[in-house]
Amino acid sequence: MLRRFFLRQLGGVGLVSTLNPLETLASPATAAPTSDRAYWVSILQKLAEPVLTALAEDQLKVRMPVESKPGQEADRKNYSYLEAVGRLLAGIGPWLELDSAEEKALRQKYFSLAQKGLANAVNPKAKDYLNYTKGGQPLVDAAFLAQGLIRCPKLYQSLPTEVKTQVLTAFRQTRTIQPYFSNWLLFSAMIEAFFAFIGEEYDKMRLDYALRQHEQWYKGDGIFGDGPDFHWDYYNSYVIQPFIVDILRTLPGNSYDFLKKRMDKIAPRYAAVQERLIATDGTFPVIGRSICYRAGAFHHLANTAFLKQLPPEIIPAQVRSALTAVLHKTLDNPKNYDSKGWLYIGLNGHQPDLGEGYISTGSLYLTATALLPLGLPATDPFWANPATDWTSRRIWEKGENLPTDHAIHA
Description:
Structural class: mainly alpha
Strand content: under 5%
Order of helices and strands: EEHHHHHHHHHHEEHHHHHH
Number of strands: 4
Oligomer: single chain
Shape: globular
Largest sheet: 2 strands, antiparallel
Radius of gyration: 20 Å
Strand order of the largest sheet: 1-2
């Protein structure tokens, strides 16, 4: 039997938070996590276990269900597996890269599973050899996989020479896919950034075109258009700004210093906006497409915290507290998962009508990108400092007299 209990979280190990209760579900035999970090790691395990275990055993295509819009299951099976792998590793890469005592045994376990799994994912003779050429979608998720390897360089470096070669071959195969005139330009750019990162020959034109085009699409006050038009959605967070930031920090030389200086203003501003979007209870506006990426709506905020680039008015611990509330709201509900632990389409439970035609089971693992700060050690202020109320709680629940918010010019 499942029982309900109220879990109060704080970042210090073993401490109890003063945050409002956040309802969750757990087995009576399972001890409640003793800290925010322990809770985040439990979410990481819940997401990573089915994907990495199946892939390491060359059984991902057998075990992973592919839920999608009715009638589209056959098509989405061409893409859903790479989606799950690439998006998961993009989220947990920094944690896999971490070299510290906390969670060491667990991290070694998942690192080993990722090594074995990648070997299957790029081996044409494996059952779980993934699709890098058919349709357009493989470009997207090869790019997330490349981002995951940039965030965890020792994973790629640990692979046998033959597997490294197969990874590079898989990435090069995606060059045959023409990206849409939108955020998709950054998928091509991320793959080239990975080549640059490891010292391989890369296509400077694909990189330059994506970065300069997005500079043209900047709308002001920390927001880029998704293509020429502005969209009310979370794509500045799902893709655009985390990709631009990671590409720029990866490239050698100073050719894009002009854009780096702009992003030094734009990225923190959008992170501040994202922090303000999180309501007192961890909910956030249900607007725009791809809302089933759940906590992935805060990919950018999580990445900015991980890279220690938050604006000065935002304390890392308040981001931890806010994201913890988001994780509770989007990933605690048992109805988020099927009986074997695979994510269902939805935002808070099983809500298949929230999914667009391109959404399938694998797509949903973009939610793992909210976990990026697990790449910071437990001693970092993000984790070690006491829980801190985020902006919505300070204004709406505490009635604090906070400074007004203002636009930036970049």
